[in-house]
Amino acid sequence: MNDMRLLQRTQGMNDIKIQANGVDVFYADNHAIKDVSVEIEDKTVTAFIGPSGCGKSTFLRCLNRMNDTIDICKVTGDILLDGEDIYDPKVDPVQLRAKVGMVFQKPNPFPKSIYDNVAYGPRIHGLAKNKAELDEIIEKSLRRGAIWDEVKDRLKQPGTGLSGGQQQRLCIARAIATEPEVLLMDEPCSALDPIATAQVEELIDELKQNYSVVIVTHSMQQAARVSQKTAFFHLGSLVEYGETGKIFTNPEDSRTESYITGRIG
Amino acid sequence: MPIFWLITGVLAIACIGYVLGHRRAMASAGGNLRRLHSLPSYYGLNVVLKSIVPALGLTILWLLLQPIFVSNAVSGMIPDNEIPFGSSRGLVMTEVVRTAKGLNQAVAAGEITEATAQNRNTSVDDLTDALKSAGAVVTSTLTAPVMTAAQAYREVSRKGYLGMSALVLLVATVGALWALRETHPDFRARNVVEQGIRALLIGAASIAVLTTLGIVLSLIFNTVEFFRLYPASDFFFGLEWAPSFSGRGGASQLGVIPLLWGTFYISIVALVVAVPVGLFAAIYLSEYATPTTRAIAKPLLEILAGIPTIVYGLFALLTVGPLLVSVFGAGGALGVNWQGGGRAVMTAGLVMGIMLIPFVSSLSDDIINAVPQALRDGSYGLGATQSETIKQVVLPAALPGIVGAILLAASRAIGETMIVVLGAGAAARLDLNPFEAMTTVTAKIVSQLTGDSDFASPEALVAFALGMTLFVLTLILNVVALYIVRTYREQYD
Amino acid sequence: MSEASTNNPAHAPKTSLLASDARTKRRETAEKRFRMYGIAAIAVGLFFLIVLAVTIVRSGLPAFTSAVVDIEFTLTEVQFDEAEGTVFKTKAYQGFFNAALAERLQAADFDVAFDEKAIERLLGKTGGTIREFFRANPDKLGEPVSFELPASSRVDGYFKGRVTRDTLVDSRFLQVSDLDIVDAMVDAGVIKTVFNWNFVTGADTGVDNPGGAGIGASVIGSFFMMLVVLVLSLPIGVAASIYLEEFAPQNRFTDLIEVNISNLAAVPSIVFGILGLAVFIQFMHLPQSAPLVGGLVLTLMTLPTIIISTRASLKAVPPSIREAALGVGASKMQTVFHHVLPLAMPGILTGTIIGLAQALGETAPLLLIGMVGFVARGYPDGVVSGFLDPNSAMPAQIYTWAARADAGFYEKAWGGIIILLLFLLAMNILAIILRRRFERRW
């Protein structure tokens, strides 16, 4: 353990934010994730890539216990956030998810106004003492979500009325508003057109200055563009994990190479 | 049962026609099936359709219209001075029809011969005696013109039925022969038969429209008749409901306001019970319950919806009413004297609420399940608890649908009859005390139409005006509710 | 963008995941409370269901038993001739019977004074039954014959706890002193409760004899009504559904039909009663109180339900089946009748049975077409009169009993409900079996 830390320090890397050790996930009898161990760094964009059904999204959802909402799903192994086991019985998933926010594949704004969408998190977590503070948080979040200029004049209009790309950026702003430490993104651009995708990618790049961002993507180009670290999943196993540049140019595992060069997946 | 034999006859013609059509088709093709346009059975079916459909259509039409024509023909035989004071020609005609039926009964019972029954010279007293000993229901003093009219009624009816039988059998035969003549190899029998069946299908689908038409027409005609006898403004704005019981008296107060008040009051009590319980049950079942709990609790709750309303009525009358009196009545457990008798707004409202619980819960359950999982995930992803997600995301999203469900439940409550007839009481009252007996529109429809008053009096006709009020109210509620629910569903489809 | 990046997120002070703060605890409590509301709501619903079930069973079961006096006595030929010779023949038989009863009670060491009037109050006039028996079976004269004679309804009520010494007011029906005789008869083993077959098979009685009232005749009435509903609503409902689901073009007429069906499904049932009264009875002069009219009204009421469920079953048949049939050259009509309809049939039948069950329990429309207030005193005579002669139906009969003043009828009403619910249960079980056995998942 100590050696590892040392190694990473010497490489000039950030602190480890999330550490997973020997994680297995079962859906009823289906063994979806097989013995995955990974370390995710702070202030870094980490990409999970791999063919469809390889378990990358499932693993992502383990990181903020979203799988709890599925009855038949069972998770074993340790996942530590800042050294604390998030599957400890004493942990309230609600508190965990306030620290580890999530953005989903399809933009899912609530059927409320844009303002109320962003205010939702701060309100339930009691982050604002008064209206002025809440207004401030919302403006800040929308600015950081790179959508403030587009919506500042229509905050009272429903969030569902925005375009797909705007909706997704609204959802990101909504996730940021709760001031999470980690942001999980499950294929955030798969439902967007290229222009909207570019906007969101630019945003992700900005976000990494403050957050640890984990992004699942099926687009290798996207992973190469936005991430510093990349993990390649195949058939439920973590095949290779390392610097993005190294994975894409000089993979160690033959399966990674096959996937990168388009022979599998 | 001449109609029974008539229909059997038509069916027999159709069967023979089928066989002949089948044979003729085969024969015309020289036994070579491939030369026929359609399968031989279609030629047979063509014959069947062309004989049965016009014949049975004619039968139904004739049966509908004959009583009207016969009544018109016979009613002229009754002189004006034979109509008793306060009665009407229509009432006397009812008497005539009843007497005619009695004569049939007497002949069937062997009290008199057919000839005696038809003979206009038979004395009225003899016939009356025969009617009485045959057990027919007749008034004691049958007058000679009524008896003569009854005899004429029988005569005309009998001729009418004979004519109908002959005509119907003729139509069936002609239809069959026509279809047989058409039968040759190039005749497109399948297309013709399918066109015919399609027309029958359209006819079946139109019955829904006809039913609505029937409801609207029967309500409108009788309501208009009622407003001729009783001023509409007094009906709509009258604060008192006090029909005279003599049935013929003109001193009735027939204001609808107290009835509407009772209806709304009871419905509101019912909704106050049913909406929270039903809604929370739906929320628990769709959001929290494990599959096993859901599989057990949901059908159990829905049993409540399958129980006939008469059971709830009896439950209100014999169980809930006395129970409430023992709590809220004089000398009851609370020591307050609020409730005088078992029948009260509370009794009916409470029981109706129980009945509506599964109605609200299964509708809301559907609606809550239609809220996309993505919205819930979004909320959980932000660290909301399950109840926060439900209260602030799921319910607001489902709100239009739930409002629709509540409106449908309200329409149910307003139209419910048996619970209020047995549980709410008979006195119309404008009062605020929910432990007081009040009555509703539906309960009064029942009591005004099952009493002894005749159908031409305002006391009976008011039931149709009440029915019209009820129909319009529930129609508005239903249309609005269905519209809301449909737009809601489309939003998430 | 630059503005965003300079604006550092104000991270809340580091908190441990393992210790929940006060706010989280509050939220957890709120969560538990909310969950409890849900459980409470379900508990309330189930509580009502249980109360209802217990009430029905407890109040209704007594209707299925009745108190009878079981006495064995011998009538000699001499006594028979003597009785036949008197003017009041049944009175004489009653005398013999009373003597036998007195002897029986005295043999069991009971010294209760009673007169003939008291026996009459307890058992009604017994002579007629005895006379008829011996006139029909003269060979039984001289042999001991055992008679089971029904006790009067108030004695019956005394047995079931409906009538007590405290609540009983002396009347010509029963006096408190008569109850001593009843107690004596109980101790002597003369009186006992037996299963009341008459309730299940019999017909209604007048307002003064709750003991003899039975539901059998109205079961027949309901049966004929359901026959009408089945014969009319199944073909019409299926035909209408086929048209709407498979053939109807998108036009105003189709819309009109659709709107009508969904509205009719929600129209209060009493309005259908008004329709039946105005159209079938006033306009078409069909007989009042006839199962045929009741069946017609219930058909119109059930049709929307059947159409809605039938359309759902037709919709569930995948389009690939239709395409396959059309692909081999079947006409649209052949496709529907040869393939779609048979595949949808289990679903259609299930829906129809559930619709019938609804119709069976419906009361309000029957009130308006005169199926109450009429006392169904006997069985219909033959099939035709089964449709046309006045009769009652189960729910209408229950309502008639509930509306009567004598509390003895309430027991019958609850008992009637048990029978009605048994029929509904049977129909629903049949529907479930059909669904389980034939349900197809595509």
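qc> Chain A touches chain B through 29 residues (CB under 8 Å).
qc> done
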